Amino acid sequence: MKSLLPTLSIFLLTLLSSNPAAATYNSAVGGSQTAAAETGSIALNLTATGDLPGMLSVTLKHEGGNVNGGSWTLTVLPPNADASSAETGTLTGTFTSGAITLDSHGIATAVSSVNLAVQSGTGQFGTITTGSGTLSLSADPENSTKLGGPLALNF
User: Where residue 36 falls among pLDDT bands split at 50, 70, 90?
Assistant: First the structure.
């Protein structure tokens, strides 16, 4: 019995500490830039469809065309949500790198290869504490104030 106890203990610790394989969630996002609270940053409100439907709020900090920080929150809604639908949870994180293109008025026309860090979640995502992702946006050719593109999150 004594010889089984260490083996069982190691097995249980391994089982409890192992993380399930991360999954990739792909969404399409679209929306527009809103007023930024500070110089050197832009704010975006985007609607997400796909694997994680909902609303993405973004604040990107930038300098010289490079993304150098910022934060994001994705409020996830049930599929086919309407105005009375409650959120299923949120995911939050920061931006670590990427590129941004602004027009002469300071309006974002492109956001490319922006890397995201997933830091926390609530609701059905309450156990999420780490992850990564990418975001790329480009201006709509018919309405340059609208941006859209892919969002991929791994957690």
Answer: low
**Where are the domains positioned within the chain?**
24-154
Beta bridge partners of 67: 62
Query: Residue with structure tokens 């941004």?
Result: 100
Query: Which amino acid appears at position 134 of this protein?
Result: T
CA distance 128 to 38: 30
Helix (H) or strand (E) run with residue 17 in it: helix 4-17
pLDDT digits (tens, 9 = 90+) for 42-99: 999 999 999 999 999 999 999 989 999 999 999 999 998 888 899 999 999 999 999 9
Length of the chain in terms of residues written: 155
Q: Quick one: tokens of 66?
A: 């490079």
Angstrom distance (rounded) from CA 62 to CA 42: 8
Q: In sequence order, what are the residues at sequence separation of 6 or more whose Cβ sits closer than 8 angstroms to the Cβ of residue 108? A: 33, 42, 44, 60, 100, 101, 102, 137, 139, 147
Q: What is the pLDDT of residues 1-25, one digit of tens each?
A: 455 444 444 444 444 444 457 899 9
* Nearest-angstrom CA–CA distance, 83 and 134: 28
Query: What are the tokens at 123?
Result: 């609701």
> How far is it, in rounded angstroms, from Cα 109 to Cα 22?
32
